[in-house]
Specification:
Layout (H helix, E strand, L loop, with lengths): L4 H13 L27 E7 L4 H14 L3 E7 L1 H9 L5 H11 L2 E4 L11 H6 L25 E4 L1 E5 H7 L10 H11 L1 E3 L2 E8 L2 H14 L10 H5 L7 H16 L2 E2 L11 H6 L3 E6 L12 E4 L9 E3 L5 E4 L6 H12 L10 E3 L2 H6 L8 H11 L13 H11 L3 H21 L25 E6 L6 H14 L3 E7 L7 H7 L2 E5 L14 H6 L10 H6 L1 E2 L2 E2 L2 E6 L1 E6 L16 H11 L12 E2 L4 H9 L19 H17 L10 H12 L5 E5 H6 L10 E5 L12 E7 L6 H11 L10 E2 L2 H5 L1 H6 L2 H16 L18 H11 L4 H20 L4 H8 L14
Parallel strand pairs: 1-2, 1-3, 7-8, 7-9, 14-15, 14-16, 21-22
Antiparallel strand pairs: 3-12, 4-11, 4-13, 5-9, 5-10, 6-7, 16-24, 17-18, 19-24, 19-25, 20-22, 20-23
């Protein structure tokens, strides 16, 4: 059997990652069982199948075969790589989020079947389809009860090869097909040998899964039931630490490991042993067999056997990227089922490695067993037919106890109780986590074929905003391309905000992005004023002049306004009353302070707070309130602090009073993580009556925590000078490097008026706000707020930019916020601000004289621990 185990593991890794050699892909094998099981489907129906990009070549022949057979159903492949990879790379991403994302990409896909909301229960389809034959799957492949959220592609089989000569030398009986765990344990004790402290012969080398098999065998012998509920808690409670069997199990397994009966580096990761060399030198009697190579080149006699049957499967359904799943959002469930049923009858992605078809019929059809050594085939078939009871390890905390005994030399009797207690503690933490809020219904994206340039046709590369619905954007591009012969648009991505303007201009002809970013080279953007002035098709009043002003610099119009974001006050209508709400346009800080005080109710854990900043607006929201003073915190020209300006002090005093009386904040400086978590909790539990937010913030974030039917949204009431409200703009831009500026102008002017593809925010064009499509797809609060702000923009004479204070990058507001915190705790705010200004001025003078920010901050304040803090350990 396999001599080079590394090669076998490499082949297995290729299966796990979907990196399948094209030559190894077997042709599809349709069967009569794929005949329709219900009435014919009125067509044509197009359904999508999402797979990782590297696996697409594997499925192309399967899709082609299915499409040839079906008169009314056609399958299109969707590459899920670009969308899913960032989620998988982010360790904080939940399996449910991955499932929901996949379910929105395609009608069917390769997934894990983890989400009740995102993934269709396939049991009704199975029960209604007499041709499906669930008994054709190996035991345990399909749950006997409850929902079935995926059809397994394949199953992994782990069988074992053993050195017959070692068994004969030790006088140990060779394994038989009906051997038991006690038989194997006794054999391992007899096969292992030691020379003093050195193990000269191991009984068995195991993988993590086969170690678990050994542990389960010991648990079964101890009388631990294996038919528990499918959750970790019931599994842990099956064997309590005061049960004598608990210590016995730990003692027996650790003794096997210490004696050499079992070798696993699971508990000694630093102990590196070449298993292949152990096998070659006949220093191990039994080892896992990955049967990639069908011959047996060892220089001694070997045979193959399955692990003894215990109440646990030898097999595990599917592979790392899951089974075949149907999205709960599909509009064509019957068509999707026919495709999944067809897929389940195809060979798995590869014939190599330890994975075999999940269906008996496919195994026979592909003659998998016939390609193996007869002894291997017998062991594989035996393992496949072993029953599956439960995939959760009973008394899983035993694993931690064994680790403690081996690594820390703790007595088994003393190791079991803390291991159990720690597992219970972790479980209690899990139980205390709030139940996730159900997400919105799944909507499956409609695939749009990639635009391919025909002869004489110009293809524009467009990069969308990260907030774009790519499917809707691609549909708009397709419509545009159909209406303009010779001109087409292809969507090259929706990651514009992640790229610098210069990079965007090189990789795209035109793009949508938010210019509110650190200063960049705006020469990468083409001046579109000449196009706007010459365009007789675009109404002269298409955009409020104030929004155009926000995209104008030095007389150059850097793009067309696309959407705008602005501040709003939001109230939970179940917690406010008429006298306190809604705000009027002439509200002052005093009015806000009084309204928030009226809305605050109760105390301690039941307190309802009258005011807060939304979780995404904690810093900017404060600065927006500070700006009521018409006086920036730092002088825009010199960068010098202006904390003691009388107008600013008066406003800051009102802000501190507002927060101290009505908000859930004990401080404003330092880490905001706890503050954000606190606001999240208040929103979810409906203990926040009014908060400062933005339009995009509500659409993208707050709506996940608050029922949009219970909120009222009003434009921010304060007039920030010169008659205008602060606004952030997202624009449609043309690259200064493009060869197709005229075509790009046609596209961006067209896109600005499309009412079915609008990123979060207020559409810049009044015609879009008034359109039936926008009105139908938008909540009432967004429609009313958009109309109010458009009226405001038309009436205003000037427009301030976004409210974040513009100060030099090296400027440090650390001491400013310390002063506010002191005032929040009841200190003399004016005095605190004066001291903060003195310290900040000393810091800034040092920086202006070429000092390093960290050193300057330390000189100005020896207790400084802000963002420029020097790491003393370096």
């Amino acid at each position: 059997m396999p001599r080079n185990i590394c090669l076998c593991l490499l082949a297995l890794l290729m299966v796990l990652t979907g990196c399948v050699p094209e030559a190894s892909v077997p042709p599809p094998n349709p069967s009569p069982a794929d005949a329709p099981t219900t009435e014919p489907i009125d067509g044509p129906v197009v359904i999508t199948f999402g797979v990782p990009g590297q696996a697409i070549p594997t499925y192309v022949p399967m899709v082609e075969a299915f499409n040839r057979e079906q008169a009314t159903i056609q399958v299109q492949l969707v590459d899920t790589t670009d969308t899913i990879r960032p989620l998988l790379e982010d360790l904080s991403t939940s399996p449910d989020e991955v499932s929901r994302t996949l379910a929105g990409l395609a009608d069917t896909y390769i997934g894990n079947g983890f989400s009740e909301e995102a993934e269709q229960d396939l049991r009704p389809f199975i029960e209604a389809d007499p041709a499906f034959e669930p008994d054709d799957f190996w035991p345990g492949m399909l749950p006997e009860t409850g929902p079935i959220r995926r059809l397994p592609q394949s199953t992994r089989v782990e069988v074992f090869e053993y050195n017959q000569e070692l068994f004969q030398e030790r006088g140990v009986a060779e394994p038989q097909s009906d051997w038991t765990w006690p038989d194997l344990r006794q054999a391992l004790e007899q096969l292992a040998e030691r020379d003093g402290n050195t193990i000269t012969t191991y009984g068995m080398t195991v993988t993590d899964s086969s170690f678990e098999l050994a542990l389960r065998g010991e648990l079964a012998e101890a009388g631990v039931a294996m038919d528990h509920q499918r959750d970790d808690q019931s599994a842990n409670e099956l064997l309590l630490p005061d049960d004598p069997a608990a210590v016995t199990v730990v003692e027996n397994v650790t003794q096997l490991i210490r004696s050499g009966g079992l070798f696993t580096n699971q508990f000694n990761p630093d102990e590196i042993i070449d298993v292949q060399r152990l096998v070659e030198d006949q220093q191990v009697a039994i080892w896992p067999l990955f049967y990639t190579i069908p011959d047996r080149p060892w220089p001694f006699a070997t045979n193959v056997v399955a692990f003894p049957q215990i109440p646990y499967p030898q097999i595990s359904s599917g592979i790392s990227n899951g089974g075949y799943v149907m999205s709960s959002g599909t509009q064509y469930p019957e068509a999707a089922w026919r495709w999944l049923s067809f897929l389940s009858r195809q060979p798995p992605q590869s014939q190599t490695g330890a994975f075999v078809p999940a269906r008996r019929s496919v195994l026979e059809q592909e003659q998998v067993l016939e390609q193996l050594d007869p002894a291997v085939a017998t062991a594989v078939e035996q393992a496949l037919n072993q029953p599956q009871i439960n995939p959760i390890l009973p008394a899983g905390w035993i694993d931690s106890a064994i680790r403690d005994v081996i690594q820390n030399d703790v007595e088994p009797a003393l190791a079991v109780e803390p291991a159990y207690a720690e597992t219970q503690r972790i479980w209690e933490e899990v139980l205390q986590q709030p139940t996730p809020t159900p997400g919105p219904p799944i909507i499956v994206a409609t695939p749009i074929p990639e635009t391919v340039a025909e002869e004489g046709e110009t293809v524009l590369r467009f990069m969308g905003s990260e907030d774009h619905n790519r499917t809707a954007l691609e549909q708009a591009a397709q419509t545009f391309s159909q209406e303009r012969p010779g001109l087409a648009v292809t969507i090259v991505g929706t990651e514009a905000e992640q790229l610098e303007l210069a990079e965007l201009a090189q990789t795209s002809d035109c793009f949508a992005t938010n210019l509110f970013r650190p200063p960049q080279d705006l020469t990468a953007l083409l001046d579109v004023r000449p196009f706007l002035d010459a365009d007789t098709q675009l109404p002269t009043d298409a955009f409020p002049p104030l929004l155009l002003d926000l995209l104008t610099q030095d007389g150059r119009l850097l793009g067309l306004p696309y959407t705008a974001d602005a501040p709003v006050l939001v109230a939970n209508t179940t917690l406010v009353d008429a006298p306190s709400w809604p705000p009027t346009p002439d509200w002052t800080m005093t009015d806000l302070q009084q309204a928030a005080a009226q809305l605050s109710q109760g105390s301690n854990d039941d307190r309802i707070y009258g005011f807060a900043f939304s979780p995404l607006l904690f810093v900017e929201g404060q600065e927006l309130l500070f700006q009521q003073a018409r006086q920036p915190v730092f002088d825009p020209a010199s960068g010098q602090p202006q904390f003691t300006d009388p107008a600013l002090v008066n406003v800051l005093d009102e802000v501190v009073a507002l927060l101290a009386e009505s908000a859930p904040y004990e401080q404003l400086s330092g880490s905001t993580i706890d503050i954000l978590d606190r606001t999240d909790s208040l929103l979810r539990t409906e203990r926040l009556a009014m908060w400062l937010d933005t339009i995009e913030g509500i659409e993208e974030y707050t709506s996940f925590y608050v029922d949009e039917e219970t909120i009222d949204v009003q434009p921010f009431p304060f007039d920030l000078g010169d008659g205008g409200q602060p606004t952030r703009i997202r624009g449609l831009h043309i690259s200064a490097e493009t060869e197709y500026a005229d075509g790009c102008w046609e596209w961006i002017s067209y896109l600005s008026g499309v009412d079915t593809v609008v990123p979060p925010g207020i559409p810049a064009r009044q015609s879009v706000v008034d359109s039936p499509a926008f009105q139908a797809q938008s909540p009432a609060w967004l429609i009313s707020t958009a109309e109010a702000y458009h009226t405001h923009w038309q009436a205003s004479q000037a427009m301030p930019g976004w409210w974040q204070t513009r100060s030099p990058q090296e400027q440090e507001p650390y001491w400013f916020y310390q002063a506010l915190d002191a005032g929040l705790q009841g200190g003399n705010l004016e005095q605190e601000l004066a001291e903060a200004q003195t310290t900040t001025a000393q810091y800034w003078d040092c920086v202006q004289n070429d000092g390093e920010p960290g050193e300057c901050a330390q000189q100005a304040d020896p207790d400084y621990d802000g963002r420029w803090q020097i790491d003393e350990s370096e």
